[in-house]
Design a protein that fits this description.
Elements: E1 2-6, E2 16-24, E3 29-38, H1 43-60, E4 70-73, H2 77-86, E5 91-94, E6 101-104, E7 111-114, E8 120-123, E9 127-134, E10 140-144, E11 156-159, E12 165-169, H3 175-196, H4 205-219, H5 226-237, E13 264-267, E14 271-274, H6 277-285, E15 288-294, E16 304-312, E17 317-326, H7 331-343, E18 352-354, H8 359-364, H9 372-390, H10 409-421, H11 430-452
Parallel strand pairs: 1-4, 4-5, 15-18
Antiparallel strand pairs: 1-2, 2-3, 6-7, 8-9, 9-10, 10-11, 11-12, 13-14, 14-17, 15-16, 16-17
Helix pairs in contact: 1-2, 3-5
Organism: Neocallimastix californiae
Protein name: MULE transposase domain-containing protein
InterPro entries: MULE_transposase_dom, Znf_FLYWCH
């Protein structure tokens, strides 16, 4: 019987899916014999699992005592103790499914991956060494398993009682395994580089791997295992996600811009505001500010991400001037938001704040009439009714267009929101969002500097 657990296919509420399999020698095939979802990996849980398997097997094997002779499993104390308790006479053999320890051979810089078993160790998943003898100083000598074959491999390894390498003879004479060892060294060096590098959160690992693996797979067939290593490494880089506003830290590397300037300017229990000095300058210099909130890219613990943008007339370009994460939407929150932005501005000028109105509703109206004049009058009547009924407190002269520039307010904000939404496959975590906002700020800073320096041409006005 073979037993092992996997975490990758476990439901979000479960710890792992535990699978048992058997080998049928008469047909030389493996078959799955049970699937279990575990909430933890305590010994009592394993005991209950195997007890139920034993009871169920007895139903279909009447008058036969169900006792597997050999269990092949991972080296896990709770699992081993549970199996021995349920099946006292069973023999356990630990399998080489996961590395348990990594040591480095100083002699030839070979990465030595050792798996604990009673009388055998495995080197690089290729070289197997059986225990040959024990010495008076408690050290152990292991000989390559090929020494009993026609190869009569002379290689051996000596470990002390702490499994540190005292001596290693790397004179293997079976070349197919020699290639395996070289391949293992290459793979481990690639893994080391992955662990040292910083992988961007918005990189699609599957797509990137697909582009590389075709060529790399021909050079090094063992490269296939790097794909999962890249994914695991990127997950380790992520700071543990936060679930409430109260957990937002007071300090973070994402609170600075790429130029090491302050990015986060305010934080309380309902609001956190991000604005760099560059964005504050744009906010103060230009009279038109566009404001809108998006729900799609807001972290799960917040209500929306509120974004302000400005239009730079001389460059004919739009630039983002602030990002804010709001826990709830209420007037006092917005008041605090703009008050904090106002505090850091040197020269405040009067701003026209353009908000989204109901242009989308008006576009969907289909007023059909044979007489164009009647159609026009009917539309004016509708506008008058709409204004008196729904827009009592709004200045309708500021609708849709400003300064004869044909940029609809709704489009200015929504287009940018849709762009940000595409950066994430689903709702981002707090730190994933900040990482992208930090990059966006840097990108617009570079764009602005290059345009004002004449390196990039300014966008032309539409006639």
């Amino acid at each position: 019987m073979f037993a092992d657990g996997t975490f990758y296919i476990a439901p979000i509420f479960g710890y792992q899916v535990f699978i048992t399999r058997i080998y049928a020698p008469e047909i030389n095939s493996f078959y799955t014999t049970s699937l279990s979802i575990l909430n933890n990996k305590e010994q009592a849980t394993y005991e209950l699992l195997f007890e139920e398997l034993k009871k169920n097997a007895s139903k279909y094997n009447k008058n036969i005592i169900v006792t597997p002779k050999i269990l092949h499993c991972d080296f896990e104390k709770g699992l081993s103790n549970a199996v021995i308790k349920i099946f006292p006479n069973i023999t356990i053999k630990y399998c080489v499914w996961h590395y348990k320890r990594s040591l480095e051979v100083q002699k030839n810089r070979l990465c030595y991956n050792e798996v604990e078993r009673k009388e055998q160790i495995i080197l690089n998943r290729k070289y197997k060494f059986n225990l040959s003898s024990k010495r008076k100083d408690n050290s152990k000598k292991y000989k390559c398993t090929e020494y009993k074959t026609l190869n009569q491999c002379p290689s051996f390894i000596i470990l002390n009682n702490e499994n540190q390498i005292l001596e290693y003879d790397d004179s293997h004479n079976h070349l197919e395994n020699k290639f395996g060892a070289a391949k293992s060294i290459v793979k481990n060096k690639i893994k080391d580089e992955i662990s040292k590098s910083s992988i961007p959160f918005n990189v699609n690992i599957k797509r990137t791997y697909g582009e590389i693996s075709q060529g790399m797979g021909l050079i090094c067939p063992g490269y296939n295992s790097i794909k999962s290593q890249v994914t695991r490494s990127r997950r380790k880089q992520l700071i543990p996600d936060i679930t409430t506003f109260d957990e937002i830290p007071n300090e973070s590397k994402y609170y600075k811009t790429k130029r090491d300037e302050n990015f986060m300017i305010f934080k309380n229990n309902d609001l956190i505001v991000f604005q760099s000095p560059f964005q504050a300058e744009l906010f103060s210099k230009n009279k038109h500010i566009f404001a809108d909130g998006t729900f799609h890219m807001a972290p799960i613990f917040s209500y929306q991400v509120f974004i302000t943008r400005t239009y730079v007339t001389e460059l004919n370009c739009f630039y983002t001037t602030s990002f804010s994460i709001l826990k709830i939407i209420k007037q006092t929150t917005y008041e605090i938001l703009f008050e904090e932005i106002k505090k850091i501005l040197v020269n405040i000028i009067v701003l026209k704040l353009h908000q989204k109105y109901f242009i989308a509703i008006l576009k969907k109206l289909k007023i059909k009439s044979e007489c164009q004049e009647h159609n026009y009058v009917q539309f004016l009547e509708f506008l008058e009714y709409f204004k008196k009924t729904y827009l009592i407190n709004f200045e309708t002269e500021n609708w849709n267009y400003y300064d004869n520039i044909e940029h609809i307010t709704n489009n200015v904000s929504e287009t940018f929101n849709k762009y940000l939404k595409k950066l994430f496959a689903k709702k981002p975590t707090f730190f994933q969002l900040l990482s992208e906002l930090q990059k966006e700020e840097s990108k617009y800073y570079i764009d602005y500097e290059r345009r004002t320096a004449g390196i990039l041409r300014n966008k032309k006005q539409k006639n």
